[in-house]
Amino acid sequence: MAETKIEWCDFTHNAWWGCTKVSIGCDNCYAETLARRVGERNLWGTDARRRLFGLKHWEQPIAWDMKARKAGRRFRVFCNSMADVFDNHPEVTGAREQLWELIRKTPRLDWLLLTKRIGNAVQMLPEDWGNGYPNVWLGASMVNQMELNRDLVKLLATPARVRFISFEPLLDHIDIDEAWRYALADGWGMEPAKELHWAILGGESGSGARPMDLTWAYDIRSWCSHRGIAFFMKQGSQANWPKFKAFETFPIELQVREWPESAA
Q: Which of 88, 167, 206, 253 is most buried (CB neighbours < 10 A)?
């Protein structure tokens, strides 16, 4: 992996390829499509293998860290765009340990770990995790109200210096306050802006893309704005936004691309 066209990061790096679909948001998985396009047709599912990588692949982020030092800035790395860091597949345990070691060795990189399995995170984090590595942003993907009600409290309960939600692909209207009431009922008493730092929002792309209503995006943008949470509008839906990636064509209220502050 190398520099990327993903708007909210500088690089992508995969500890492995392959996953199992666990959400309605996985139905049109871009990673599975890309893997099949390059000839990897047996990487998805609980019984499928995972594609692992050699030493040269693992050395790339070391070079990015050196580049960040010379540039006097931090780089954001999206980790496992072709997999899920908290996949419980037996083949990836060693690669996940290798990933934690790599993150410790690259303090000038902010690693963005985005998962659909936030409930697995606590038991898979490294022993020295503490309150979270300062250069890790921990995120969970939630595409509808059911997933938000179920997983927001799990995200808040997982130690992290920076937490975020990816509403991509956003498939329905979401009431974040409703999910917050579920979190409070579970004993989580913090204010959202103190424990949630960032929200990414995007529609679906590719063949079979499902539509996204503008009002769904407006409501999440408004919620973040009122609570001081950074908001990043990634794209519309290819199903109903003809220029879904042309940022300058978005409604002015949605032409917002913010990042949270790094804890490092």
A: 167
- Give, rounded to a whole angstrom, the gap between the first and last alpha carbons of the chain: 24
Break the chain into its structural domains and give their ranges: 59-254
User: For each successive 10 residues of the chain (264 residues), what is the average pLDDT?
Assistant: 82 98 96 94 96 96 98 98 97 98 98 98 97 98 97 94 98 95 76 85 94 97 96 97 95 97 93
Q: Mapping DSSP to helix (H, G, I), strand (E, B) and coil, where does residue 101 land?
A: helix
Task: Indicate the pTM of the whole model.
Answer: 0.95
DSSP letter at 107 equals: T
| Number of residues assigned to the chain | 264
CB 92 within 8 A of CB 50: yes
Tokens found for residue 217: 């995006």
What is the C-alpha separation between 83 and 89, in angstroms, rounded? 11
> Domain 59-254 adopts which CATH fold?
TIM Barrel (3.20.20)
